[in-house]
Design goal:
This protein is an alpha+beta fold and 498 residues long. Helices cover 53% and strands 21% of the residues. It contains 11 helices and 17 strands. It has helices at 2-71, 76-88, 122-130, 172-182, 232-309, 313-339, 352-369, 389-405, 437-440, 458-468, 492-497; strands at residues 93-100, 105-108, 134-135, 140-143, 146-156, 162-171, 188-191, 197-201, 210-215, 222-227, 348-351, 373-377, 384-387, 412-419, 423-430, 472-477, 483-490. Strands 1, 2, 3, 4, 5 and 6 form a 6-stranded antiparallel beta sheet that branches. Strand 1 (93-100) and strand 2 (105-108) form a beta hairpin. Helix 1 runs antiparallel to helix 2. The two termini are 37 Å apart. The mean pLDDT is 83.
Length: 498
């Protein structure tokens, strides 16, 4: 049964929290990994977005400058040379060209363009319609080895009418090389406004890929970056790194719980052994008290007869010792009988002050004999409790006698009585030798005593009586600093109601 309880406790404290913790950590690590992968894709897309925006802005600026240069020249040969030199200054251009207002070829840097019908190109048609800069949304093949994207800018006369069109072919391979240098491992696609892929890098975007998309500001295009796949191995490794300390802490917590449970179990077992010991003593005393007292009575009577017959001083000394020992045996039997009674049968309503006043002559007498100063502090208002008067007197007297015996000449003993809303507090304070710290935990153990002739049952009996009356007894003491004993008892109304 104990082993089953240990297994059950281990499952509750370690196994279940470990499973829940591991799942939580796994989801946390997975979410963090996903956020990092999305962040990486966003960072890549942002880099290329800025690069493309800068690239288009520089191209537009180049075309604007070229348009101004062409507009200022009338000689076609000079214009051809200006176009040729402009292309040579930047490797991004596959070719550059000049068209008239109807889209017919006038000059360019490639002979292949002479036979090309620009009027069929949509972006040229769009320029002729809008008189605005337009970029093609289709990839063209300039040569079998070279793919390009067309971009053209209108040249307007003073009346804002289309006069000529200057354009360039942007090399796709050049842009792909730039993108490859910036992010060599990323899978990227450039798509036009229709969603068609214009260029790809590292295989582009697959059908089942997760994609982060960002638009290019200067173009109606989008940059799509593939979000990397989940790395299950990385997630498991990070989960294990986070989970291991949690698993260790849960085991430490489990061992702490087991330690406190074992400590509590040992304490309960010790308490149960003490109770069983008291019950055994009580039952033994209850069953044998009469058998012990009857012969004691006979022995005591015979001793008295012998003491009357033998008057010699030495004989009388022996008879007194025998009588004292018989009285001591009788006292021990009486204490055994109290231990054997789990409940107090005869209870009555009494005033605490009355019990103390009845005991005062005896306490003062003992104090005077030992040259000890005694005083009490009792309230005038009667304080009633519901208890067995004789046994409560025994408690008060026993503790007072312990206090007197712990002091030498010129000691001080005080008894005070206070109340709260539900309890009364009888405090007996002395200036005696006190109780060493190592003995404080044992003062209520049966048969433990620091006196040469004590039974070790006095405080045990006192505690038994007080607890039977629903009260509590506390002791505060240290070596050479005296002792304070407080007896806490419920007031009569609370005692009866409970």
């Amino acid at each position: 049964m104990k082993r089953k309880n240990n297994y059950f406790l281990y499952i509750i404290i370690v196994i279940i929290p470990s499973i829940l913790g591991m799942l939580s950590i796994y989801h946390y690590v997975g979410d963090r990994e996903e956020t990092e992968r999305l962040g990486d894709a966003k960072w890549i897309a942002t880099i290329h977005q800025k690069n493309w925006d800068q690239f288009i802005s520089e191209t537009v600026t180049t075309l604007d400058i070229l348009a101004l240069s062409i507009d200022a020249q009338n000689d076609m040969e000079t214009i051809r040379e200006v176009v040729r030199r402009t292309q040579l200054t930047d490797m991004r251009y596959g070719s550059m060209f000049l068209l008239d207002a109807k889209g017919s070829f006038e000059t360019g840097t490639s002979e292949l363009l002479k036979n090309h019908d620009f009027t069929n190109d949509r972006y040229i048609q769009e320029i002729m319609r809008t008189n605005d800069l337009i970029i093609s949304e289709e990839v063209e093949t300039l040569t079998p080895e070279q793919q390009v994207i067309g971009i053209a800018n209108p040249i307007l006369d003073v009346n804002f009418q289309l006069e000529k069109i200057v354009g360039a072919h942007l090399r796709v391979d050049y842009m792909q090389n730039i993108m490859q240098i910036l992010t060599p491992d990323a899978s990227i696609s450039i798509t036009n406004s229709s969603g068609k892929q214009i260029m790809n890098m590292n295989g582009g975007i697959g059908k089942n890929d997760q994609v982060y998309t960002v638009p290019i500001d200067r173009l109606p295009w989008n940059i799509e970056v593939s979000i990397s796949d989940v790395d299950s191995g990385s997630i498991l490794r990070h989960t294990a790194i986070f989970f291991l300390p949690l698993f260790i802490l849960l085991h430490i917590f489990f061992f702490f719980i087991k330690y406190f449970m074992l400590k509590k179990h040992a304490k309960n077992a010790e308490k149960e052994n003490e109770i069983q010991k008291l019950e055994l003593v009580g039952n033994l005393a209850a069953s044998t008290a009469h058998e012990i007292r009857n012969p004691l009575t006979g022995v005591k009577g015979l001793i008295q007869l012998l003491s009357e017959k033998h008057k010699h001083e030495e004989d009388q000394y022996y008879f007194s010792i025998i009588n004292n020992e018989i009285s001591r045996i009788n006292e021990i039997v009486s204490e055994f009988l109290i231990l054997g009674k789990p409940t107090i049968e005869k209870k009555e309503y009494i005033y605490v002050q009355d019990i103390i006043r009845e005991l005062e002559p005896l306490i003062k007498s003992e104090a005077n004999l030992a040259n000890i100063h005694y005083e009490d502090s009792l309230p005038e208002e009667p304080i009633g409790i519901y208890c067995n008067k004789d046994q409560m007197k025994q408690v008060f007297l026993n503790i007072a006698k312990n206090a007197l015996e712990s002091m030498s000449s010129n000691g001080y003993l005080s008894i005070s009585l206070t109340t709260s809303s539900h309890h009364c507090y009888l405090t007996i304070k002395d200036t005696g030798v006190g109780i060493p710290k190592k003995e404080m935990d044992r003062i209520f153990e049966p048969f433990y005593t620091s006196k040469d002739y004590g039974t070790g049952l006095g405080l045990v009996v006192c505690k038994r009586i007080v607890e039977a009356n629903k009260g509590k007894i506390t002791i505060e003491s240290s070596a050479s600093n005296g002792t304070v004993v407080t007896i806490i008892l419920p007031l009569a109304s609370d005692s009866i109601n409970s």
